[in-house]
C-alpha cells in the first residue's frame, strides 16, 4: 500500500508541472477532382511525456467548425476532410478549446473551386454538340449528335435527320 500511495504522489507531482501540448502546424491540401474537397492536417508538439491530451477546433473559414482531440497513444497529426460549398479563398484557423485545450493558434490560407476563364467555350456532354452561334455570355445550346451510321430502316421507309431528330419514315 505504501508504494501505491507514493506512486500516486509521484504521478500527481509530475503532472502538476505538465503543460498542455502545443499546436505545431496546420496544412491544407486541395484534393483533385472538383477542387472543393480538402484535407486539413493539424500537428501538435508534446513537450513532456505527461502532455497526453488536448483538444482544438478547426474553423474552416466559411462558418463551419470541426472539433479534434488528441489522447494517449494518438499520433502527432490528425486530419479532417471537408468540402467547401462555394469557390473562393478561405483562411483556416486552428485553436485550442475546452478544459484540456491545446496551446496556440495556427492558420493557413487556401483557394478552392476556382472557376475557369469566363470566355472559355462551353462544353456539351458526350454525344452532344454545341449549336453554332448559340453562345451568348453564359447561355448556350447543345444538340444531340447524329449517329455515325444512319439507322437501318425497315423496307419501305427511309432514314431522316432533321432539326435534331432522327428516324425512319
In terms of topology, how is this protein built?
Layout lengths: L1 H15 L5 E9 L6 E9 L8 E6 L5 E6 L6 E7 L4 E9 L8 E8 L15 E3 L11 E3 L14 E4 L2 E4 L1
Antiparallel strand pairs: 1-2, 2-5, 3-4, 3-6, 6-7, 8-9, 10-11
What descriptive keywords fit this protein?
elongated; three-stranded antiparallel β-sheet; Immunoglobulin-like; 169 residues; mainly beta; four-stranded antiparallel β-sheet; 2 domains; 11 strands
Point out poorly predicted stretches. Answer: 5-17
CATH architecture classification of the largest domain: Sandwich
Number of strands: 11
Compute the number of structural domains: 2
- The geometry reads as elongated
Strand coverage percent: 35-45%
Within CATH, the superfamily of the largest domain carries the name: Immunoglobulins
Helical residues, percent: under 10%
Structural class of the secondary elements?
Answer: mainly beta
The CATH top-level class label of the largest domain: Mainly Beta
Overall pLDDT level: 80
Listing every helix as H and every strand as E from the N terminus to the C terminus, the arrangement reads HEEEEEEEEEEE
The Rg value, from CA coordinates, equals 30 Å
